Fold this protein.
Amino acid sequence: MEHSDELTFAEYFKSRYDLFRGLISFVVAMQWLIDHDFAEPTDRDARLMDIEVSRQMCDVWGELYVLTLREWLDGQ
């Protein structure tokens, strides 16, 4: 098997997934900080933020998958 510089779909999707998860995590954390006057979150608050990030990722997963698949196929 030859070495290829092209990303597989799984690698391409993982990079997009990680990007979106990072962006959503940032937004959730910033919103929490603004809502709580920039107080330090407790472990419970951090866990609740993580749950919210996971919930939002579930909401966008299908759309992210389709958009990433289209982008990846256009690059082939």
About this structure: The helical segments are 9-35, 43-74.
